[in-house]
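User: quick one, fold this
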Amino acid sequence: MSATHTKKILLGCIADDFTGATDLANNLVRAGMRVVQTIGVPAEPLDTEADAVVVALKSRTIPAPEAVAQSLDALRWLQAQGAQQIYFKYCSTFDSTPAGNIGPVTDALMAALGTPFTIATPAFPDNKRTVFKGYLFAGDVLLSESGMQNHPLTPMTDPNLVRVLQAQTQQRVGLIDHTVVAQGADAVRARIAALRAEGVAIAIVDAVSNDDLLRMGPALAELPLLTAGSGVAIALPANFGLAPSSQAASLPAAGGRQAIVSGSCSTATNGQVLAFIQSGRPALAIDPLRIAAGVDVAAEALAWAEPLLDGGPVLVYSTAEPRDVRAIQGQLGVEEAGALVERTLAQIARGLAARGVRQLVVAGGETSGACVQALGIAQMRIGGQIDPGVPWCHAAVDAALKAPEGLHITLKSGNFGTPDFFTKAFAALAA
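Assistant:
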């Protein structure tokens, strides 16, 4: 990239994991923005046309000081690209621990931008994540009853977002509830002014529908910093005078072999793995205990996949039920169990690309981060949506993989997608 030809961007985004970054980028593209996603903070200026850039970090579950440092690095790079507004994106399940990282990163970004107020809402109604009276719902149940209470790294047992965020920040947290949002942008502005007068610095905002997000959108144009899941993104391009356009989502034509690598243990991904297996397509489960015992599970998986790839997509997965996950963690430790699986699936993803896979689905946030790094992906162009929050992307990969045409890849959050997502994804790319 040239250091002398910097493209100015409108919206600069910092995402705390890789699937969350594509989730956000997907909504911006749908609303008319041309979006580039970078893997980590780039070393050089952006040298391609884009309205928004999403810097994908892997900072959701690392120690809070490291998450803050990485986020501030991303902020400085985005400011250098001329970003007019900053968006800190976290998961629509708001998953975190009492130590962070949502609160500490928000505090640091506010301080760096010199802004005394911002909003926080993980609402994403298209994926059945809604906020009402400050409580986060997943579908028809509170977050704490949705399966997220069993998350292996960030279990969510309190659905009250004001309480959850207040535990992570020294600043005062308040609420802009649904009765205000329903009245539109002027009412939201008035409520923001009232909260600021009371000393509130961060406000959880209710939203139970896309209409709520669109109603609050104009009021958010005035804030230097937004913090949210990806839902709010549908309302932002209009603030910059942009409208939906098919050109924003265009990608090169797809070809090559197809594969799926899944490391998520979420309820949604468990269902997707089961549906793929029941469709009669080839699938291979990898065992973390065999990895820990020194078996070259990656080599085994690639040898298994090689003769099958010409027949259509294959699936390599480590997905398991919560009880089984806890049993493995009990033997290996939480962090070690996760790291072993991530490293192995990343090796498999790279090996699949070396064997001609040019259409790759990756399920799970941590797995996605490991895989894109193993593939040598530095940035991705965001394409059309498969399911809410999950687009196809196109990226150049490590030259050693001998894929000059690049790779079509989708990074699926563990909680997202319909049961037939894996087969539907390839059909969408062929359409």
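User: anything notable?
Assistant: The longest strand covers residues 379-387.
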